Amino acid sequence: MENFNKEVRYDILKMIHAAKSGHPGGSLSCVEILSVLYNKIMTVPSLWKKSPDFISRDRFVLSKGHASAALYSVLARRGFFSTQELMTFRKLGTRLQGHPSTRTNLEGIEVSTGSLGQGLSIAVGIALALKLSNNPAYVYVLLGDGEMQEGSVWEALMSASHKKLDNLIIVIDKNNLQIDGDTSEVKTLEPLDKKLEAFGWSVKSVDGHNEDELEKAFMQARESKKLCAIIANTIKGKGVSFMEDAAGWHGKAPNDEELRRALEELNA
Fold first, then answer.
1. Dihedral, 184, 236, 215, 153 alpha carbons, nearest 10
2. What span, in angstroms and rounded, lies between the C-alpha atoms of 14 and 72?
3. How far apart are CA 264 and CA 262, in angstroms?
4. Residue 134, class by beta-carbon neighbours within 10 Å (0-12 exposed, 13-18 middle, 19+ buried)?
5. How far is the C-alpha of 268 from the C-alpha of 258, rounded, in Å?
6. What is the CATH number of the domain that holds 136?
7. Beta bridge partners of 121
8. What is residue 221's predicted lDDT score, i.e. its pLDDT?
9. Binning pLDDT at 50, 70 and 90, where does residue 198 land?
10. Residue 100's beta-bridge partner residues?
11. Beta partners for 61?
12. Torsion on CA atoms 71, 75, 78, 82, rounded to nearest 10
């Protein structure tokens, strides 16, 4: 999927550049996570709401909603809607809002997200509803590591454990940076794995840019009868040298010259 991931990174940079706003750092860091989920793991019909198996689809919640550019690109390149629509990102009247919104009726978007710390709580409700209706679908949630500082996340983790929602799988994009800098300096998360385990979760740490490791972790989580959390160790701004590990690229659009340099690097 190397070419697929490269195209997604191209899209992210072009979309944010055209909009003159967006979040390149956290979008670039989660490309492989989304790519593996949508290409190898999840059962999701691209014929949104018109497929006979729509009710049994796996659900995905982008809790770190500011990484919407990555999700939109993956959805478009998987056939949910035209890739030509990507360049309307964040523009007036677009379906591709800065954070995913169900009000735009965009194919593939399950819930509106963006206010950090809320996505997992929504997903817990979805997973519980699926359980009660004997629906075999899984619910996947992508959280940011900065988002893990929110108290509501831990309430949701505790609720999921209490309800034994083994149909809920979370993956944490752990790029160690947030808008204000290093997560360890803003509010330390460590030992994150031990904290998750104390809340009743089985934890697996992987290289968040290694597709084989990600696929194996997701498959093991599906087969497990436990609540599973995957810590995906990633690099913020992955693929563009001057954006990598730079908190300043959390919510900044590249200018013309920066876009040219970034695309050249991806091409090389």
1. 40
2. 13
3. 5
4. exposed
5. 15
6. 3.40.50.970
7. none
8. 97
9. very high
10. none
11. 141
12. -130
What is the C-alpha radius of gyration for the chain, rounded to an integer number of angstroms? 17
Structural domain for 130, as ranges:
2-267
Helix (H, G, I), strand (E, B) or coil at 107: coil
CB 90 within 8 A of CB 21: yes
pLDDT digits (tens, 9 = 90+) for 89-139: 999 999 999 999 999 999 999 999 989 999 999 999 999 999 999 999 999
**pLDDT mean over 140-163:** 98
CB contact set of 240 (below 8 Å; sequence gap of 6+): 9, 13, 24, 28, 261, 262, 265, 266
The stretches of the chain forming alpha helices (DSSP H) are 2-19, 24-29, 31-36, 68-77, 119-132, 151-162, 183-187, 192-198, 211-223, 256-267
d(CA 261, CA 13) in angstroms, rounded, equals: 11
d(CA 22, CA 133): 38
Mean pLDDT of 30-52: 96
* Tokens, residue 223: 């087969």
78 CB-contact burial (10 Å; exposed 0-12 / middle 13-18 / buried 19+): middle
Interval 62-102: pLDDT, tens: 999 999 999 999 999 999 999 999 999 999 999 999 999 99
Q: How many domains does the chain have?
A: 1
Contact (CB, 8 A) for 155 and 121: yes
